[in-house]
From TrEMBL:
<feature type="transmembrane region" description="Helical">
    <location>
        <begin position="244"/>
        <end position="268"/>
    </location>
</feature>
<protein>
    <submittedName>
        <fullName>Uncharacterized protein</fullName>
    </submittedName>
</protein>
<feature type="transmembrane region" description="Helical">
    <location>
        <begin position="78"/>
        <end position="100"/>
    </location>
</feature>
<feature type="transmembrane region" description="Helical">
    <location>
        <begin position="18"/>
        <end position="43"/>
    </location>
</feature>
<dbReference type="InterPro" id="IPR018750">
    <property type="entry name" value="DUF2306_membrane"/>
</dbReference>
<keyword id="KW-0812">Transmembrane</keyword>
<feature type="transmembrane region" description="Helical">
    <location>
        <begin position="112"/>
        <end position="134"/>
    </location>
</feature>
<feature type="transmembrane region" description="Helical">
    <location>
        <begin position="215"/>
        <end position="232"/>
    </location>
</feature>
<feature type="transmembrane region" description="Helical">
    <location>
        <begin position="140"/>
        <end position="162"/>
    </location>
</feature>
<dbReference type="Pfam" id="PF10067">
    <property type="entry name" value="DUF2306"/>
</dbReference>
<keyword id="KW-0472">Membrane</keyword>
<keyword id="KW-1133">Transmembrane helix</keyword>
<feature type="transmembrane region" description="Helical">
    <location>
        <begin position="174"/>
        <end position="195"/>
    </location>
</feature>
């Protein structure tokens, strides 16, 4: 008799592999909802103010530069960056949904091309905003976001290369890494709010130059990337202990994401939706 035959059928659901998968689904569901809330905020905050020509009202969301009188190129760079950010926040989630991948392969291919092109545009545009327009509170924090932007370019390259070569497993792994780094700026906001709520604002300052403010742009892509690597290795591993440890870490990550999301929605996003 095999080992599994001795286990009552209902308990099969609670194997370490199933629990690990469930923790991934839990995190992804919270993140997907959060991505779409972020897109909803971007559209609600910037589309009405742009459509009515009240460009100076972009700055009501609490920006560093945003709209600047007389800086046509900078203003166009800013608003194209922001509006396309809404697109990646919606399309990235669609791209990773297994049901969309399986049932609508043509959509997956075209959405993937659009997602990657827009992500590259956002990364390059963001880096130019920081270092050419000079939109930064301090160099160290800006360097963190810049590294995230460079990682977007690297991971997009690998995702595309493996897709063209039909190495589907490698393509899927790089696509998940791309998803994580494209969401680096989203993780900054969510991480910032989770930390602010949990610690009461320790290491944070109004001018964004406290230790927590400077570390957050680095943690925002490093922690999710490390957790993703552990998740992928645990899925391939035969060790139940390793699977359960990673399940715990991902579940904790899901809780922190939910907390940060709640804070971001309440304090950063919903108050700035224009109408
Ligand atoms: C690829 C994913 C990215 C998304 C989804 C994204 C999203 C956004 C959003 C929504 C804003 C408007 C600010 C707000 O209302 O919260 C913004 C502004 C900005 N982003 Fe990005 N961004 C991305 C990548 C980057 C990168 C890689 C950099 C820099 C290296 C960057 C630099 C900036 C700058 C400088 C601003 C202007 C902020 C201001 O004027 O105060 N972004 N971004």
């Amino acid at each position: 008799m095999s080992d599994t035959a001795a286990v009552p059928p209902r308990l099969h659901r609670f194997t370490p592999q199933a629990l690990l998968g469930a923790s991934g689904v839990l995190w992804f569901s919270i993140a997907a909802a959060g991505q779409w809330l972020f897109a909803y905020y971007i559209i609600g905050a910037y589309v009405p103010r742009t459509a009515t020509g009240e460009f100076e009202r972009w700055n009501e969301t609490g920006l560093i530069d945003g709209y600047a009188q007389g800086d046509l190129i900078g203003n166009l760079g800013f608003i194209s960056h922001v509006l396309l950010a809404a697109f990646v926040s919606v399309s990235g989630v669609m791209q990773l949904l297994p049901i969309v991948r399986r049932r609508f392969p043509t959509f997956h291919r075209w959405n993937g091309r659009a997602y990657m092109s827009v992500a590259v545009f956002l990364a390059v545009g963001g880096i130019l905003l920081v270092w050419v327009r000079g939109t930064r509170m301090n160099d160290l924090a800006a360097l963190g976001t810049t590294i995230d932007g460079l990682l977007i370019l690297v991971t997009a390259g690998f995702t595309l290369r493996h897709a063209i070569a039909r190495r589907i497993d490698q393509h899927r792994r790089w696509a998940m890494r791309l998803f994580v780094v494209v969401n680096g700026v989203w993780f900054v906001r969510v991480g910032y709010m989770a930390w602010a709520i949990a610690s009461g604002g320790a290491g944070m300052s109004r001018s964004l130059n406290g230790p927590a403010d400077i570390l957050m742009p680095y943690a925002a892509f490093l922690v999710p990337l490390v957790l993703l690597e552990f998740y992928m290795r645990a899925r391939d591993s035969r060790s139940s202990g390793f699977k359960l440890a990673v399940t715990g870490a991902i579940a904790l990550g899901a809780g922190i994401t939910a907390l940060g999301l709640f804070g971001a929605w309440m304090m950063m996003w919903s108050p700035n939706i224009a109408y």
